[in-house]
Amino acid sequence: MKNFRQIKNLIKNSFYCSISIISKEGHPHTSPIGSVYLINKENGYFIEMFTKSFGDQVGNKACIMAVNTSLVFWLKSLFLGRFATPPAIRLLVTIKERRKITEEEMAHFNKRVKPFRRLKGYKHMWSTARYVRPFTVDKVIPVSIGKMTKYLT
Question: In this structure, how many other beta carbons lie within 10 angstroms of the beta carbon of residue 19?
Fold first, then answer.
């Protein structure tokens, strides 16, 4: 999956992403991250809200997994018996230092969560977006799901 537009679209259609790191104890730790943005083929960032364990991380390497959660995508794929594009990807990344969110990044984030503003959970989950973690993409690995993805290259 080398097409940047496909990768960016998959992430855009993912309401849930996760990031995995290795803790100081040597154990894998996975946290939800709902807001991953790719700037270009090599760089991106995510909104840091549910990743409190990053202080216990060994090194700066991580794996971000994004799953296309579009209902239309899944229904069409299940009906056809194959995926036209990978249903998920893993981004092997190098994480950079946390920094304050910019106004532009906050605008992108607010646009994404705007449909949920009137719900009770919005305040608890998304009203505290203050920091981002930039990253560089080291490698993109499409997720294979048996026969449904066997014709993808």
Answer: 24
